[in-house]
Amino acid sequence: MVQKMFSSAARRYDLNNTVLSFGIHHYWKRYAVDKTLAKQGSIVLDVCSGTADIAILLAKRVTSSGHVMAVDLNPEMLEIGKKKVIKSGLEDSICCSIGNAESLQFRDNKFDAVTVGFGVRNVKHLEKAFSEMHRVTRPGGRVVCLEFTQPESRFLKYLYDFYSFTLIPAVGTVISRDKTGIYNYLPSSIRKFPPAEPLKQLMHNTGFSKVYYELLSGGIVALHVGIK
Ligand SMILES: C[S@@+](CC[C@H](N)C(=O)[O-])C[C@H]1O[C@@H](n2cnc3c(N)ncnc32)[C@H](O)[C@@H]1O
User: Which one of 2, 72, 127, 146 would you pick to mutate in the ligand 1 pocket, going by the greatest count of ligand atoms within 8 A of its CB?
Assistant: First the structure.
């Protein structure tokens, strides 16, 4: 069901992201990529890569001596990602591949860093996805997870609820001409996703050490970092 929604929204996904976040998603993604500490020559993985925004930022950071794998379950999202990769002239640095976050097609300890942006909220078994990201990260490497969360301030929560349950479904559905209800699903999935502190604990339980998180933009986004 979730995959049908992403297929329907794929064509206008980037436009919707930019309109609905007032462009701030670019800043969140750049910040997450900085936190990977990836450098020239690093081998990195972007899970739930969608239209490859984070993969493209990673490729610019690791340069042509490094490599980026961009993995997503949805062919329509990834197809748009591939076009963007070609348009950015980064096709030698990024390989886009269909894959499931819950059973990644890579050997153990392969990547210097792994990112997942606004993706884990959609996977079926969260622990499995984090175990897989842990498995493919080399010892000492980092997993950086960017995900929406609920602000703690009551005032911001009130504004955020109004914004996400009224404006996002209305604007998102019109822009994407969607009939699947993805822009109703996305805000409600945030409410069902673990808050930042339990997510930190979950990462710890799946084997990461020194897990920490930062809340961004008034606490609507949480950035978690775990070290293998
Ligand atoms: C909200 S989009 C985020 C895309 C991109 N990371 C970004 O930040 O713009 C979530 C993506 O997760 C993908 N996804 C959901 N479940 C997945 C899974 N089990 N394995 C791989 N990708 C998955 C969806 O197909 C979708 O492209």
Answer: 72
